[in-house]
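Re: beginner question about structure tokens

> Can someone show what the tokenized structure looks like for a real chain? I only ever see the sequence side.

Sure, here's an example I had lying around. Input first:
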Amino acid sequence: MKWKDILKHKNNTGIVMIVVLGLLILLVFSHRRNLSDLQDSFSSIYSDRLVATDHIYELSQLISNKKMLIDRSDDDITRRVIHIDDTIQQMLTKYEKTYLTDEESALLSGLKDRIRISQQYEQQLIKLSPSDQSVELKVELAHQYDLILLGLKQLSKLQLNEGQLLAEESKRIVASDTIAFRLEIGLFLILGLLVFVIFSAAPAHRVIEPPRIN
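And the corresponding structure tokens:
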């Protein structure tokens, strides 16, 4: 092979190598981005979904406890209701700090309104003696509790749906990263083959032996 052809062949191979190296660099950045997205997805599943679901469960328990407490009408009811209301407010504040979709925000807003209305009914009942408490007031308060528990149940379902979406997104990221990893292996093999071609195309230097003297 002539030197001119060899140089042309090497130049073409060098261009291909540059392209391959560029693709490898892009794949490395893609891998880092996928890793970052996967970490964010796992973090969101825990902090915005699992923890939020626990907050919803705690709120449901608090509302149920308060409902039973109001029905009992004991002497210590005022202090205990105030304590439960403070705990409910703390749980709502924690829940609001998690990531909420538009639908979740709307449900939460309605839930807070119902809690506020129920607290107004509670104060009316607490101020009255058991004999003076009207059946209508108790029925309306029980209805508000049912609406609150229904709202919490709807929020819980939304949390489950959003968690499933995040899990599917994590699977997609893993699948994409697996494809990128396989491409990296293929490109490394191509790069190794190109290096082999370059070195194999170089002409072998003949060693000229000095003439022998008889």
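Each token stands for a local structural state, so reading them left to right follows the chain. The domain at 3-201 is CATH 1.20.1330 (f41 fragment of flagellin, N-terminal domain).
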